[in-house]
Amino acid sequence: MFGPEGPTLRELAVQALSSVEHGYDLLAPKFDHTPFRTSDRVLDATARALAPLGPFADGLDLCCGTGAGTEMLAGLCRHSVTGVDFSAGMLDAARHRPRPAGGPGIAWVRGDARALPFTAAFDLVVSFGAFGHFLPRELPGLFTQVHSVLRPGGRFVFPVPAPPRPTRRDFWLLSGFDAVMRVRNALWRPPFVMYYRVFRLGTVTRELTRAGFTVELGVLPGFGRRADGSPRARLVVARKADARQAAGQPAAGDVNS
Fold it and tell me: Signal sequence span per UniProt (predicted)?
């Protein structure tokens, strides 16, 4: 699961007994050598799906971690890219990540996704692998924050993998992990919020709509379909209304499911 450059079992145990913020500060130097980093396969597929919806001027990577998604975003935006995260350690690792020459400048900002320090400054907001750190009751506030930092017509985009079936080993591994975390958080303070099976697509689309978005579900290319024909990975594209939509006219360039 972890290569020789990844964290040791002791380091993971210390992280798990810390707060979310301090835990990621500790893990940051070795984070890119763990399975928790968003895979290049997911990032590349998201970039391919987003390219026809552009061009984009300014982008925000929400809960950017060490910046893998931010680099992807830099290939889609012409003017500026911002990565925001509440872990100083993760941001420090992001700043030291090697970057290819060219492309827009990247600003790294320490901030909480539930209280973003921006005005309506972005055309595109993306996020990868961070939603397990938010309890379902926090989603309305989180999505309202994202809506507030988007310009009219801007999009909030993130991939969502299909949940594993109960007949699959992954289902029981993820369910077991969530159960252990619930016990840990009941017995230990500070809590470490990280659950794999609380971010459910039906709840997410409902709360995005309540926050003022128009939501479309695309298929993330390259991941194929399950035996029942459903996609193995979806791309959620939540759009903030622009002047055309406010006037009752259809908006151009939406993603097809």
Answer: none
Going from N- to C-terminal start, the domains of the chain cover: 40-164+199-242
The angle, 0 to 180 degrees and rounded to 10, between the axes of the packed helices 20-27 and 9-16 is 160
Write the secondary structure of 155-216 as one string of H (helix), E (strand) and C (coil): EEEEEEECCCCCCCHHHHHHHHHHHHHHHHHHHCCCCCCCCCCCCCHHHHHHHHHHCCEEEE
* Alpha carbon separation from 64 to 23, 126, 188 (Å, rounded): 15, 9, 27
Q: Which two tokens stand for residue 186?
A: 């009941």
Can you name the CATH fold of 40-164+199-242? Rossmann fold (3.40.50)
pTM comes to 0.89
90-132 pLDDT per residue, tens: 999 999 987 767 778 899 999 999 999 999 999 999 999 899 9
